[in-house]
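Structure (tokenized):
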């Protein structure tokens, strides 16, 4: 079968006019109008390419038409048309104008004498609809023509502007543009966890034949399944995300938008898009047909679509999508708090799980104390199910709460960073016996640049109105260690975690006048042009230390 463009271009208007106007005898007024409409439609259509996927843009309520011609030459002429909606449902149909072979041949040769036209009036000719469809599924029409014919495709979107792809082929022997789906194209869910779902699907015959040019790509989202890769791309873009071409189906390095994260590991490409409508993941895993999706949210319904993609043409076919709901997260273990007892909690930043503490009041007034050791922590306190405190804490934080005897308090702690965080917690009714020392207005250490020398630095810090013990420690560090030292410092650890050689001195001081509650110290015996990390520990009556913010100072290189 072959497209007859050569003879079709020039006399097309003659062919259509003759076929449409001479196909019946003595048409009525309404029939004349119908034929004029058909003629106008064919005149204002576009030629559809054979063997090539065509993108068609549709405006709302405005039909768009394409045509193609099949000429005689074989007893049966097969052809295939595949239409892929990329957004909303559309209406589309195939119309055919049939005419006798003798007439078409003569019209093509430009033989328009009166005798031939008179004969052609006796030849059967008509326009009919042979297929129509309405929906948003990928639909394929396979036809067979035993005569020369002019075909027209008409597309209409009634919801909004959209686009579709159309693929016509008359060569059914050299293989399809689209990868082939298995007989059973369903995706099976073979495992569900709190944060994982394991999927499997049957191999595409195309993978077995062209393994190096074919790969599977998985789309995960929380809204619904998509019937084509084209529809998925359109939906994600409309949510405000900008995608690499064809959902990054090849492993080429694309430039991502700020709301995108690309992860490449073990020959798998994952792209995570974050938007207000939720998270969308795209994972391309080569030719593996079993995959476990990790790091999902508990008790959440997810939709999974698998696409088989030809990397050479970017053409794809969609498996039948599925969905699954992850298991509910088990109730967190609740730790009982006891009066005056301090516990330290380490929070997993990656899993973002809550750590729960419970306390039953034995007094009407109680005080919760939190000392942040590392990272960032969010504290949520409820009394008998009602929220009484909710905030991110830093340093040392007290909550004084009033209630009734036997009120039940629930404390939930969560790391607000991806790295682990830790915090010390205490609850007590004994306000006259504080666990932690009285703190100054600021826990910052100040250094004096003008007082720096090649072998000494001078630092200062604030004290309180309460006589307390202060211990100073120093540590020599390198330039590339500064960020790590400051980031990983455990603000709850005391001098017992330090090497003895790092201790500089311990001293007591206080001042009733807070304006004068400042002390300075000059640390000598240092090396020139060297970075040092200085720490000050404050000890209260209970002996539990509070660590000031670390200070990094560099001695002068030349004096």
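Design, position by position:
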């Amino acid at each position: 079968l072959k497209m007859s463009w050569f003879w079709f271009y020039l006399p097309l208007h003659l062919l259509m006019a003759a076929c449409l106007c001479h196909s019946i005898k003595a048409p009525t007024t309404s029939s004349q109008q119908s034929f004029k409409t058909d003629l106008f439609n064919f005149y204002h259509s576009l030629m559809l390419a054979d063997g090539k996927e065509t993108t068609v843009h549709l405006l709302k309520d405005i039909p768009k038409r394409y045509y193609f011609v099949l000429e005689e030459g074989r007893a049966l002429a097969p052809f295939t048309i595949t239409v892929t909606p990329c957004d909303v449902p559309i209406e589309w149909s195939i119309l055919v104008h049939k005419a006798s072979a003798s007439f078409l041949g003569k019209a093509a040769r430009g033989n328009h004498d009166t005798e031939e036209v008179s004969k052609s009036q006796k030849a059967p000719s008509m326009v009919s609809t042979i297929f129509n469809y309405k929906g948003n599924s990928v639909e394929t029409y396979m036809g067979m023509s035993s005569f020369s014919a002019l075909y027209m495709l008409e597309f209409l979107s009634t919801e909004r502007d959209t686009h579709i792809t159309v693929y016509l082929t008359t060569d059914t022997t050299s293989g399809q543009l689209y990868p082939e789906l298995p007989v059973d194209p369903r995706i099976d869910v073979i495992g569900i966890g709190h944060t994982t779902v394991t999927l499997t699907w049957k191999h595409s015959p195309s993978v077995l034949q062209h393994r190096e040019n074919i790969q599977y790509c998985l789309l995960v989202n929380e809204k619904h399944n998509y019937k084509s890769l084209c529809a998925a791309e359109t939906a994600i873009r409309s949510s405000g995300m900008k995608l690499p071409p064809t959902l990054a189906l090849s492993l080429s390095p694309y430039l991502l938008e700020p709301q995108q994260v690309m992860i490449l590991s073990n020959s798998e490409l994952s792209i995570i898009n974050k938007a207000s409508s939720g998270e969308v993941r795209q994972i391309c895993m080569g030719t593996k047909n079993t995959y476990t999706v990790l790091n999902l949210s508990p008790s959440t319904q997810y939709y999974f679509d698998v696409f088989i993609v030809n990397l050479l043409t970017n053409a794809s076919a969609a498996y039948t999508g599925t969905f699954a709901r992850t298991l509910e997260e088990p109730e967190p273990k609740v730790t009982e708090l006891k009066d005056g007892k301090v516990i330290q909690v380490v929070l997993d930043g990656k899993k973002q799980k809550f750590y729960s503490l419970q306390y039953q009041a034995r007094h009407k007034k109680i005080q919760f104390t939190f000392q942040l050791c590392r990272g960032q922590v969010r504290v949520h306190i409820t009394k008998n199910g009602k929220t009484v405190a909710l905030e991110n804490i830093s340093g040392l934080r007290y909550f004084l709460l009033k209630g009734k005897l036997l009120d039940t308090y629930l404390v939930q702690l969560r790391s607000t960073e991806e790295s682990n965080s830790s915090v010390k917690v205490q609850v007590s009714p004994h306000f006259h016996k504080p666990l932690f020392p009285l703190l100054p207005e600021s826990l910052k250490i100040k250094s004096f640049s003008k007082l720096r020398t090649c072998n000494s630095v001078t630092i200062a810090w604030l004290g309180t109105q309460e006589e307390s013990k202060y211990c100073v420690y120093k540590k020599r560090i390198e330039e590339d260690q500064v960020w790590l030292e400051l980031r990983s410092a455990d603000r709850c650890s005391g001098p017992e975690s330090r090497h003895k050689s790092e201790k500089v001195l311990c001293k007591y001081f206080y001042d009733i006048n807070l304006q004068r509650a400042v002390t300075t110290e000059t640390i000598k015996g240092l090396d020139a042009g060297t970075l040092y990390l200085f720490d000050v520990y404050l000890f209260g009556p209970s002996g539990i230390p509070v660590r000031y913010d670390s200070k990094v100072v560099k001695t002068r290189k030349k004096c």
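Reviewer-requested clarification: The two ends are 93 Å apart (CA to CA). The helical segments are 5-9, 12-21, 29-43, 101-108, 114-120, 205-209, 229-238, 482-488.
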